[in-house]
Amino acid sequence: MAAAIDPFIGIWKLNPEKSQFGPHHRPRGATLTLKLNPQGYYLMTAEGTNDKGEPVAERPQVLIPDGAPHPIPDFPGLSTICSRPDSRTLRAEARREDGSLVGHGEWTLSADGDSLIATNSGMDSQLREFQQRTHWERSR
Fold first, then answer.
1. Domain 2-138, CATH 3.40.50.300 — does that match?
2. Strand 10-14 to strand 29-36: parallel, antiparallel, or no bridges (unpaired)?
3. I need a labelling partner for 5 at 20 to 30 A (CA). Which of 51, 53, 92, 113 fits?
C-alpha cells in the first residue's frame, strides 16, 4: 500500500464541518488526491462541489519538496518552493520574481495518519485574498 511508503499518498475527503472557509470559498464537499512519482514529486489534484452544488476542479499542483524554487507552469514570473520539514508536514509557497509572497500552503498529518489539516492563503483566480483551514479524512 502506497500510504505505508509515504503517509501523504492517498485519497482524502473534505470534512466541511471541521473546516474554516473564507467568504468566497465554501465547498459542499471535495476530494483531494496525492500521488508520488518515482522522483519524489507529489501530484496534488482536487475536485468537488461549490456552495451552489456545481462541480469544481482545481488545477493540478506539483510539489517538489527539495526547498528550491521551481517555475509554475502557465504563470510566468512565479515560482513555487516546497519543503518537508518533518515526516508529517509539507509546506509550499508561491513567489514572484522579486521574492514577494503570492500564496502559502501547509499540509499536516495527524499522528495516526488518518486526517490531514491544510492551511492555505493567497489570491484566488479572481484576485481575491483568501485564507482557509481545511480538515481532510483519509478515504478507505
1. no
2. antiparallel
3. 92
